Structure formats: C-alpha cells, structure tokens
Amino acid sequence: MKVGIVCPYSWDVPGGVQFHIRDLAEHLIRLGHEVSVLAPADDETPLPPYVVSAGRAVPVPYNGSVARLNFGFLSAARVRRWLHDGTFDVIHIHEPTSPSLGLLTCWAAQGPIVATFHTSNPRSRAMIAAYPILQPALEKISARIAVSEYARRTLVEHLGGDAVVIPNGVDVDFFARAEPKPEWQGETIGFIGRIDEPRKGLPVLMKALPQIFAARPEARLLVAGRGDEEEAVASLPAELRSRVEFLGMISDEDKARLLRSVDVYVAPNTGGESFGIILVEAMSAGAPVLASDLDAFAQVLDQGAAGDLFANEDASSLADGAIRLLRDPVRREELRDRGSKHVRRFDWSTVGADILSVYETVAVGAAAVATDERTGLRARFGLAKDKL
Hints:
Elements: E1 2-6, H1 16-30, E2 34-39, E3 51-53, E4 58-62, E5 65-69, H2 73-86, E6 90-94, H3 101-108, E7 113-117, H4 125-138, E8 143-146, H5 149-159, E9 164-165, H6 172-176, E10 188-192, H7 202-215, E11 220-224, H8 229-232, E12 244-248, H9 252-261, E13 264-267, H10 277-284, E14 289-292, H11 295-300, E15 308-310, H12 315-327, H13 329-342, H14 348-381
Parallel strand pairs: 1-2, 1-6, 2-3, 6-7, 7-8, 8-9, 10-11, 10-13, 11-12, 13-14, 14-15
Antiparallel strand pairs: 4-5
Helix pairs in contact: 2-3, 7-12
C-alpha cells in the first residue's frame, strides 16, 4: 500500500505528534508498505529518506503551547506536487484543523483521506468560529481517528461527527530492553519535557522539591529537555540547586536509559494533554509513574492502577506522592509490574494493526465507489467493459 502521511508540526522540533508519525511511518515501512511523510522542515535540515520537506515552519501559539506550523502559497504548491508525485492509496492527515499542511492537503487531495485528531481542548472558541471554513475540508475525510477519548470528545463537541479511538503507539520492547545508566540511578526522580513550557509542569515540580529533598536527603532530580536551565531553578533555594541535574536534549536511546534508571518518573503536566505518550514510554521502561490527575493521564494509567496520581497543580500533593514512592520499594515494584502488563495495549504491533485496518477499509470503499462510477459511465455512454 502507498501511504502519504501529513505532519502538521516542524519535523526538526521534537514533539509527541512528530514522534508518533515517525514511529508509524517506520512501522509501516518495516511491514513492506511504501510511505512518504510531508512535514514542515528547514530545507537544509537532514531528514529521513521517507520525509519530504514542505518548507520552513513559523512559530504560532496553539493549544497552550507554541506550535511550528507551515501555511501559505509556497506550502500549498509543495502539497500539490507531493500529492501528484505520490499517487497514494491512502492519505493520512494529522491535526487537519490546525492552520498548517493538514488543512492544505484536505483542500487539495482527491481520494481516501484518514485524519487523526490529537488535540484535547474543551474550551476552543477559535475552533467553533473556524468551523464554516473547516467544514468543506472535513467533509472530504473518509475516516477519523482520535488518540484518546478526550481528543474524540473535543472533535464531537466542536466539529460534529465521530471518530474511532486508537491511541498513540510505542515500541514497548525498545524501552524495556534499554540498559540503566549507573550515574542516573540511586534515588532519582526523572522529568522529560520542554523546560520553558509552563503546561509541562516543571515549575510545579520545582515548587515540590524542597519538601521532597527535606524528607529524602539523598534524592535528586534529572531533567531532560530544552529550555532556560537557570530560570528553571531560580525558585529553588541556592543550596538545593546542585541536586537538580540538567541533561539537555537527549537521544531516544538515552531517553530509554533514563526511564530505565529512575526510581520515580514524574509527569506534572497542568493541562492541554489528550493522551500522554511519555507515560506509556515510562511504563514500557519499567519506571514507576507519578502523574497529575488530568483525565487523559488517568485513562492512560488505568485510573491509578498502573501509576500513582496527584492533584493537578498541587505541589504539596506531588511532594507527598513522590515521598511515598521513594520510601516504598514494594509499591514501586508493584507499579513496575502493573505498568509493564498494561502498556502492551499501546505497542505498535496492536496500534499499527488497528490503523492499517482503517486504511484498508477506506481504500476498499474508495475502490468500490470508483468501480460504481465507471460502471455508471459505461451504461450511460454504451461503452464496453474494457473501454473505461
């Protein structure tokens, strides 16, 4: 099958949607499918062979974050060229309502379109206001996927229609077989995310650290991600700052090793999350998870059975939860065991098969429609079977 996948966000700035698209493309390629991904990217950035650049992205505030999107005449021309050259059996657009390549592709594409909705935003007045503009594009979509029940709810409430829920995928074994790094072990707490994006919750974790460190004098925090490190620790007393180690941007391999090494992984995100891929990665690596009680996080963690939850934006609740886990190796081992079993439902062997089923359904439907149209034309013009 020839599959064209559209990524709305800049390929060279890491994010959950980009990682999902990358892993989906590579999973499909391993299965023998022909895949091309169209994504915003600097034309001089080295890209995987299956990625086609649609030109440089620009930063735009979107869903409580800063998304790097691509829109305009040059982008539209590249979309049309990519569609013409690709002759795809299925086009899979991620975030088709964002002002980026997905919307441009919806307008230009002919043939079966699958759309995946990642965003969970129950108060989007902008999406409601934009519906008359979006409607003609959305009507061309053959099948809709939402990565969680909360993303599906956002779609239903703002745009109408419905979607099948298929979660983000993870290569569970990649994280499970990673080797722990000795220097990252020893009563360590882990955090991975953009340091200077408030909704990722690092300020809440920093506010909890004095209480955690007072109760656990040997504990330390490892932070991986880009951002202003000095500003991140500015609220901490000076004598505690040495117990926070910033690792900067790390490779996928080191991310897996970090998650395999820590005693507790903390996800203090404050909102705007529709799924929580980092929680799945942490469980895959066997890290006991402590997360804010966002609805999406609670669902991923099986309502607290596969990971502990604390009250969102409550630093004291976070500290209490972290201290309990650091003190209780039996509970940590219980979470490792439950998480490792629970996470199998998110493995690409399951998620990829579900997405392929959607592709096959819309491709067969499109072929049937095309056959009916050809049959109707033959009948109308009296043509023989081999003439159209």
